[in-house]
Write a structure and sequence with these properties.
Two copies of one chain form a homodimer. By secondary structure, chain A is of the alpha+beta class. Chain A has two domains: 69 residues, Winged helix-like DNA-binding domain superfamily/Winged helix DNA-binding domain (Arc Repressor Mutant, subunit A, Orthogonal Bundle), CATH 1.10.10.10; 144 residues, Chorismate lyase. In chain A, the strands form two sheets. In chain A, strands 3-4-5-8-7-6 form a six-stranded antiparallel β-sheet. In chain A, strands 1-2 form a two-stranded antiparallel sheet. In chain A, a hairpin with a 4-residue loop joins strand 7 and strand 8. Chain A is globular, with a radius of gyration of 21 Å. At the A-B interface, helix 1, helix 3, strand 6, strand 7 and strand 9 of A face helix 1, helix 3, strand 6, strand 7 and strand 9 of B. Chain A binds a DNA duplex (30 and 30 nucleotides) through helix 3.
DNA sequence: TATTTAAACTTGTTTAAACATGTTTTGCAT
DNA sequence: ATGCAAAACATGTTTAAACAAGTTTAAATA
């Protein structure tokens, strides 16, 4: 439920673009028109538009207007890296039948090596979780999660098999804010070949991510290993001349 | 040369973070302090901070302050996907010795198949350019570019061997604004094996991108095929509850 | 001492207005 | 009809101020 005005406006305009009511190449109504329509100031409209611009939906043109540069058909991809989405959210949007298998669930303590790799302090207690994501009966993703126990107390294998983010947000009332992700490709390891349906592929697309909560604490480090032909990461950026 | 105030402020704070003067975990001075220091209003400070937040440098915390969540050592990567950087810019920042070999340069017309793939209109005249990027004497990247001729008139193989973006911005005075990129991994093709030093890797990391100019015209479609162990894409995102 | 309350911070949202700057349209003079 | 200048309109930047809401600190109370 969006409470702030600029979020509501953002959402309304985005929906019009995604549904094709305003199509590729067209110009949006002017900021002043929107301000009158939504009974707010131009500043508030501009805030909504700046989100749309940052997400690659529209392109503001000085003196001309704001043009739509989004093609609805362009999102064949399963995942979007231009935002934070949990696996459950992403697959839900893509209407796939998904099963999560919990391969391992234990509590470990971060040693120096793990600390270097993940960024957690040495001695931190962590939930170590391995999961396999089965999409339409094919094992496509191998996830390894490290959750900081002090911030995510109460995780269970059962929760891990459903949605950890659902638990963190709705039960622990944690607010997830910022994440940082790296995308690389690597040769498949023995474990990848064992756990995933890689067919003839002998490499995987690897996404590692660090996630922060609203207290500024990094509470999650995750590595996801994907079958390369089944995933695609989309990102949009705005050049800022600095 | 940044002209606007918020850009200058953004840059100053970013430099302090990147140089380690304000280190990981610390809080920035408050918005009011910055406003007084830079002799501007809080709004202008907030605009600079919102860029830093969007780029994953800082994490604003309601009621508490703005915390630095950037580790300077974390950027071993060559490329950043969280922004628009030309190859020349990125390699320049990473202090590598780089040579660009132009493998092919011709003018073609978009047929239906190419139009579907790239998004250019059927019949568009395009510069077709193939380039190999040699970093520290190793051929690591194979680039295929399509530039819309009507917007990039005057491209030559010589320009292609240096920096096309330099030509577009400084000579044609084009303003590059928004880009959209997709990251996937694919099996190496014969051409990849011929042109690149792939060693034992038989797959490549593929980045395709569409770039728009300030007139809202998509003028570039590019596919870059990278040796997977030499590249890494970093992205940061801010979750917005909508 | 321990607990509660209030004050003094912090960031978040929104309004209002002025001016800058780039683009398109209009209307006038040729 | 053509060309040009002015007006109208678009987005971009910045200031100023008020209020909302979350966090920390300090004072007052039990």
């Amino acid at each position: 439920m969006p409470k702030s005005k600029f979020e509501q406006i953002y959402r309304m305009i985005r929906d019009e673009i995604e549904s094709g009511q305003i199509s590729y190449g067209e110009f949006l109504p002017s900021e002043n028109e929107y301000a009158a329509r939504f009974n707010c100031t131009r500043n508030t409209v501009r805030r909504a538009l700046s989100i749309l611009s940052g997400e690659g939906f529209v392109l503001p043109q000085h003196g001309r207007g704001v043009q739509v540069i989004w093609r609805p058909d362009a999102n064949r991809s399963i995942f979007t890296i231009g935002g934070i989405e949990s696996f459950a959210e992403a697959t839900g949007r893509n209407q796939k039948k998904v099963v999560t298998r919990v391969n391992s669930f234990k509590i470990i303590t971060a040693d120096e090596k793990l600390s270097m790799k993940t960024g957690f302090d040495i001695g931190s207690e962590l939930y170590y979780i391995e999961r396999v994501r089965v999409v339409d009966n094919r094992a496509l993703i191998f996830d390894t999660n490290y959750f900081l126990r002090s911030e995510t107390e109460g995780l269970t294998p059962d929760i891990a098999s459903k949605s950890i983010y659902h638990y963190l947000e709705d039960e622990l009332h944690m607010t997830i804010t910022t994440s940082r992700r790296r995308v690389t490709a690597e040769k498949a390891l023995k474990k990848d070949r064992e756990l995933l349906d890689l067919d003839s592929y002998d490499f995987v697309l690897v996404v590692t991510g660090q996630v922060f909560n609203s207290k500024g604490i990094m509470f999650e480090y995750t590595q996801s290993r994907h079958r390369p032909d089944q995933v695609c990461f989309v990102e949009s950026a705005v050049r800022q001349k600095v």
